[in-house]
Design brief:
The chain has a single domain, classed as RutC-like (60s Ribosomal Protein L30, Chain: A). Helices cover 25% and strands 32% of the residues. The chain has 2 helices and 6 strands. Strands 1-2-3-6-4-5 form a 6-stranded mixed β-sheet, covered by helices on one side. The longest helix has 18 residues, at 37-54. It starts with a strand and ends with a strand. Belongs to the RutC family.
């Protein structure tokens, strides 16, 4: 049986797990919820960069991205941050859905699966 490595394990969730060369991130949300959607998205993408680096991966190895946006009217701002972050030629499969997030001040939550 392959080893499962968990990072930042808490009572409810782990921030990340690595198994069989794949890294699975928990939903990442902004620290500063006072920012607009572009700013919140930039914060979350920076968190994703740090977590992937800890697992020995990076954004060029993303296998799938799931983006949850509180208001689809904010799509352009979210996409502006995303487009500036994702490397050309490495755009992953992505789903974006409007969703009621756990805290009303959050505008974005992103879940990533990547190869190590």
């Amino acid at each position: 049986m392959s080893k499962i490595e968990r990072f930042d394990v808490g009572p409810r969730l782990s921030e990340m797990a690595v198994h069989n060369g794949v890294v699975y991130l928990a939903g990442q949300v902004p620290d500063d919820a006072t920012a607009d959607v572009k700013g919140q998205t930039e914060q979350v993408l920076a968190m994703i960069d740090k977590l992937l680096a800890r697992a020995g991966s990076d954004k060029t190895k993303i296998l799938r991205a799931q983006l949850y946006i509180a208001d689809v009217a904010d799509l352009a701002g979210m996409n502006a941050a995303w487009d500036a972050w994702v490397p050309a030629g490495h755009t992953p499969p992505r789903a974006t859905v409007e969703a009621k997030l756990a805290k009303p001040e959050w505008k974005i939550e992103i879940v990533i699966t990547a190869a190590v």
